[in-house]
Amino acid sequence: MLISVAVGLSLEMAPASGVYTVSEIEQTKAIAPVTLSVSRDGERVTFDYKLFDFIDIKKISGKVGENRVYLGGRPIGLTVSADGVIVISKNAVVTENGLAFPCEDADLKCGDVIEKVNGKTVSTFENFGLAVGDNPEAVLEVDRKGQKFSVTVNPAKDALTGKYKLGLKIKEGVSGIGTLTYVTEKAGFGALGHYVIDGETGLSSQLDGGKIYKAVINGVVKGRRGAAGGLEGAFNKYDGQTGTINKNNNFGIFGNYTASLEGFEKIEVGGADSVKVGKAQIYTTVDGATPDYYDIEIIKAKAQSRPEEKSMVISVTDKRLLEKTGGIVQGMSGSPIIQNGKIIGAVTHVFVNDPTKGYGLYIGWMLGND
After folding, report:
1. What pTM was estimated for this model as a whole?
2. Phi and psi at residue 88, to the nearest 5°
């Protein structure tokens, strides 16, 4: 005989590895004949459902999250780097005897990360050049999407500088503009709501460290059907640092916020179950450095039992924002989504064929990463 029961927290809807605020934990109940016991161990919580208090139904574990966070919405400049310098292409070295191609036959590809040269850790143009030095041979320790290997190259002497060079075009990392989503009371931050991906090399997960800075939006390329627009911003890498990045994944960038939170608004966190189709707002900056609220409509809220991307479909309805940007544009990623006075998510992607619409991510999936 099949027994059908109902519980206060749907077993299908409860995030298997999600984030629960203290108020959500306290409000979670079971309906007889189901019983529920809740246990806390530090920052972890476990919901143990039983039938008639002795037949196991299901255990659900998650993280005890913040009840309230500081609302972001401010533009940030960001620099993200890998554990080394990134190979872009192989080039020639102009020597006294003509062009030389030291790396022509070397097993190096665009997107490879050179972590060491002759045993020395490299992360900048300067220490890369110093590590090559005057050595007639360079041993490169390379990471290619997690695969580690060594390559030996014979540098060529540049005719103009007299220095040995490998004939490689390299970069130190990736820079860009995004939007801060939140800062927790423990000074952890989340932003963007998606991976930082280097469009030139395709690198993403290897870009796992960096810094964020104060930024100013000084222009907008308006979005139109078939072409995503973008915010044009500026920041100074040598001044105005506001935090350090220690994680980059498909739910955003995360790290420690080190600047003052004066002027930041505190807001209650809403779980995925609280998200409803209907009116909401985004909090974002499209001019200068001060965010504002803009009206949107949540037109779809997906039932997700575990962290996934693309939790919501949203539509911009605010006439001011539509006139200024055409809808959602690049650089707005990470803009908080607010409904019924709670932060429930973040803007992540725009529909290229309809810039008035885009995707949002549930805030719990971000809070589970900081």
Report:
1. 0.82
2. -105, -50
